[in-house]
């Protein structure tokens, strides 16, 4: 039987990471037992970035496996979760509620709605439990973690995906500096590898700073490029005593799938709204506040200074410009709703301004003689009987999409082509085998 496995909330402020748990699941349950077979790469699914009570990064995991006994698989996962809490996450101490769902793939359409809601809105636990309780051969935890776990199941890679290759480290061993390797690899492979290096701060973005077991997570849209980075990293002697496993994930990162087109933004959603700029205010420090009219309502958008080029573009916007804002909507005591922009597409710029005509005789500038009385040349005194004329205005902006330099996990980049054809089970085995061969001799482990 083909079943989907959903996992969420296996981390805590002290350690652990749901992707790491999924990797251990693949290693301990799938590789060690013949009765469970992995059918696709594990899926790292990012959910609604707009909800305030999200866990770090708001990621849940989904895997598709073949098994004859979904009930036994579920209880094995529950036991593994207990072990993981003791050994890695210590999540109980922090009230974490790791979720596990095992559901036959034939029920996918019944839970697909939770992915869409989980991405764009808020999923209610009671709705999840009510739905899952009606489905045959379906097993799930009753805690809060069930929400993310079930939401992850509905992610459909054929609607667009990218990859993340995650390398793990042994507990508490300090991460070596990988800035140079990541920079040179991204320069070589861009845009097949993307958003791994911050060229302004000169650091690898893909290396986390927290207590989790992730050594590095490399983003890309091409498995060959990702394997070639893995190869370079393996060559680095600084990784010899640090590495503890790796996994390649199919993700919805950077596909822009969280954004809903609307004219009326609502709280805790990621929206795309088109409208006309009514005014901008640049605060001391550089944040830009804009009033934008969508045709249905006027809303306030903030473009934080930290968004870099996006804030600099917003500073150049003027009254009358037509824009399309991609933003997370937050309730605000001061503004009612506040749209925190992650990207702005400039649809139309007011690029002409009205000015006094040039003198047709000598080319000099003119001054107004009063309303409807024409203009007089400042140089030769010639009187010009005309109205103001439209002259092109330099704006320093182009009709393109400006994206935050601190994007969210789901933010789409125009230069990144999303893939739509997921590796089939044979390719999956082949990719995992290659990863295993790369890392196993190095770490002396049965890798992946
Ligand atoms: Zn003149």
Poorly predicted runs are 442-448
Helix content: 25-40%
CATH architectural label of the domain at 2-155: 2-Layer Sandwich
CATH topology of the domain at 2-155: Alpha-Beta Plaits
Q: Between the first and last Cα atoms, what is the distance in angstroms?
A: 24 Å
Q: Given the structure, what is the number of helices? A: 9
Query: Radius of gyration over alpha carbons?
Result: 27 Å
Tell me the structural class: alpha+beta
Percent strand: 25-35%
Main β sheet profile: 9 strands, mixed
Bound molecules: zinc ion
**Level-1 CATH class name of the domain at 2-155:** Alpha Beta
Polypeptide structure, described:
- The chain has nine helices and 23 strands.
- The strands form five sheets. Strands 1, 2, 3, 4, 5, 6, 7, 10 and 11 form a nine-stranded mixed beta sheet that branches. A five-stranded mixed β-barrel has the order 13-14-15-17-16. Strands 19-20-21 form a three-stranded antiparallel beta sheet, with no helix packed on it.
- Strand 8 and strand 9 form a beta hairpin.
- It is α+β, with helices and mostly antiparallel strands and about 450 residues long.
């Amino acid at each position: 039987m083909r079943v989907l496995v959903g996992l969420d909330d296996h981390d805590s402020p002290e350690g652990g990471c749901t992707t790491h748990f999924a990797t251990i699941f693949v290693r301990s349950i799938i590789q060690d037992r013949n009765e469970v077979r992995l059918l696709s790469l594990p899926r790292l699914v990012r959910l609604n970035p707009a909800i305030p009570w999200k866990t770090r990064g708001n990621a849940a995991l989904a895997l598709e496996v073949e098994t004859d006994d979904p009930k036994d698989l579920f209880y094995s996962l529950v036991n593994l979760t207990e072990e993981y809490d003791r050994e890695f996450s210590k999540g109980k101490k922090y009230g974490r509620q790791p979720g596990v769902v095992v559901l036959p793939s034939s029920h996918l359409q019944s839970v697909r709605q939770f992915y869409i809601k989980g991405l764009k809105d808020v999923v209610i636990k009671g709705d999840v439990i009510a739905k899952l309780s009606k489905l045959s051969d379906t097993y799930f935890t009753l805690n809060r973690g069930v929400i993310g776990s079930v939401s992850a199941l509905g992610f459909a890679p054929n609607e667009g995906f990218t990859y993340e290759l995650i390398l793990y480290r042994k507990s508490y061993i300090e991460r070596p500096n990988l800035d140079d390797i990541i920079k040179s690899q991204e320069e070589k492979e861009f845009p097949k590898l993307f958003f791994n290096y911050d060229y302004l701060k000169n650091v690898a973005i893909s290396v986390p700073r927290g207590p989790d077991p992730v050594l590095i997570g490399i983003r890309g849209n091409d498995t060959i490029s990702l394997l070639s980075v893995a190869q370079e990293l393996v060559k680095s002697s600084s990784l010899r005593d640090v590495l503890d496993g790796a996994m390649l994930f199919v993700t919805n990162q950077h596909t822009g799938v969280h954004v809903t087109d609307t004219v009326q933004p609502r709280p805790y959603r990621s929206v795309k709204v088109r409208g006309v700029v009514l005014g901008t205010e640049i605060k001391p420090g550089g944040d830009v506040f804009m009033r934008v009219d969508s045709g249905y309502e006027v809303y306030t958008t903030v473009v934080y200074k930290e968004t870099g080029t996006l804030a600099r573009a917003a500073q150049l916007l003027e009254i009358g410009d037509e824009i399309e804002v991609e933003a997370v909507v937050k309730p605000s005591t001061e503004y009612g709703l506040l749209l925190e922009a992650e990207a702005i597409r400039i649809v139309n710029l007011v690029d002409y301004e009205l000015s006094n005509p040039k003198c047709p005789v000598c080319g000099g500038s003119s001054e107004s003689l009063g309303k409807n009385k024409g203009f007089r040349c400042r140089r030769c005194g010639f009187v010009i009987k005309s109205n103001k004329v439209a002259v092109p205005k330099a704006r320093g902006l182009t009709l393109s999409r400006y994206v935050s330099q601190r994007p969210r996990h789901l933010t789409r980049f125009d230069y990144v082509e999303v893939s739509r054809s997921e590796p089939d089970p044979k390719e999956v085995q082949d990719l995992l085998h290659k990863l295993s061969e790369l890392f196993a001799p190095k770490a002396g482990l049965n890798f992946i």
